[in-house]
Amino acid sequence: MCLGALVASILVPEQHMTAITTEEQKNPETCQLHVGTSGFSYTEWVEAGFYPAGTKSGKMLQQYARCFSIIELNFTWYQMPKAEAIERQRQQVPQGFLFAAKLTRTLTHEIDLRQWRDQADLYREGIAPLVQAGQLIAVLIQLPPSFSRTTSNREYLAALLDKLHVLPLAIEFRHRSWANDRVFVELERRQVTLVGIDTPDLPDLFPPLDVITNPDLFYVRFHGQNAKGWRSGNMQLQFDYSYSDDELHAWVENKIEPMSDRAHNGVLFFNNHVRAQAPENARRMVGLLKARGLAVV
User: Fold this and answer.
1) Residue 163 confidence class, pLDDT cut points 50, 70, 90
2) Cα–Cα distance between 125 and 82 in angstroms, integer?
3) 20 to 30 Å CA-CA from 155: which of 54, 173, 204, 280?
4) What DSSP string runs through 3-35?
5) Domains and CATH numbers, the chain
């Protein structure tokens, strides 16, 4: 895929946002859903009772895998993953356990235009054990709110998607300017999953959508509705939120069920990690999905 194609396709005026999957594209098979959390290594989860008392960080993934079938690795954003460390984690979970992995911040937030291609190669090497084992469901490209739809950002994103095209990719926009049908059409052509997000309704934040750009996978992240926390810039405040059953039910009925009709697989991750609210909400989400007759793995 050449760089110019993505740039040309999204250098167009904003258009009304619509789901691009048609009735003819509906998936006749049962969508397999996985529910988990964004990250697992939190000492406060011991204090909150999710992990048994005395659980050390090296044993947390094993405990986590007893409750959920998938994890979104977030340490891969803070530091470049190493194949040896990834393999050790892979050995701690059952064979059918799945991983999503955040792309390293030097490729999303702290970009060096002279070195990013080398960084991308290192990342691919680092997560190779998950690819080889068939346990990598997606690489999450989480872009910051400052990454708006400028010409230079479009050019970089096109080049990044080209560089990582051999991996299963999911992209989370935070800036509203990317909420455009032409963007969605190009992601669909590339078979890159658009990440649906639940965040506070704040100016310039990307809206919650149920657009399917990859029939193989839809991907949703729940960040919480703590508007005051988001404005503070403090992560502990930003993600300090517990979803009510009514909020979760609304997501299931209005977005997750329709998305399940149009994709083979779906993953849902809770990022409201403060005081172990994420695993608690994830467990309740699993119950709601099963009550609606959806297939939760």
Assistant:
1) very high
2) 7
3) 204
4) HHHHHHHHSS----------GGG---SPPEEEE
5) 27-296 (3.20.20.410)
